[in-house]
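Continuing the batch. This is chain 6 of the set; chains 1 through 5 are on the previous pages. Same settings as before, nothing changed between runs. Recording input and output for traceability.
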Amino acid sequence: AFYGNTIFPNGIYSPSQNKTYIVYQTTSYGRKVIYFDHNSKTFSSAVDIGGTTLTDDAHGVPSIVLDADGYIYVFYGSHNSTQYFKRSSNPYDISSWNAEQSVPGIAKTYPKAFLRDSLIFLFFRGDYGDWDSQFAFATFNGTDWSDIEKLTNFDPGNTYIYGIVWLDDQGTFHLAWVWYDHANDLRKNLYYMKSD
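Output for chain 6:
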């Protein structure tokens, strides 16, 4: 499974470089980064960024975002577990990566990373224990993570959240999701919210 409908973006365009940076999960559940140069109409060679890998579990698909200074962040490797990430050593450069870090707090799945107002917003399904998963997010300023903000509050017991997030040109986040009734194996209802 690819999980492209719940883990994204997997590619991001940089107008200043005229390149699209793309991250993908390999068949061995690792991750590689490439870019497409829109000037030369060519792809770069793929770079394996390493890091923690889930075993026989495709949920670790990576998400990519560029910060305000052009550093590339890749979030990966979680399935109701620690959310890992790496940052490129240099702006707009996929050849070298800093040491692996983790996002603090609860276990996470399905990372979705965006840049708004120089902050990285990471949305995810947060695991609050005993089949209680909720839509949540945290922000990162390049040094420190904010506290986690829970966005939904469904009754615990048999609930998992599957959702998407997008950021429009006006800086508004839009979220849509269904909740999964695990006990009855049903995805129920469609919910929507947006940021102020």
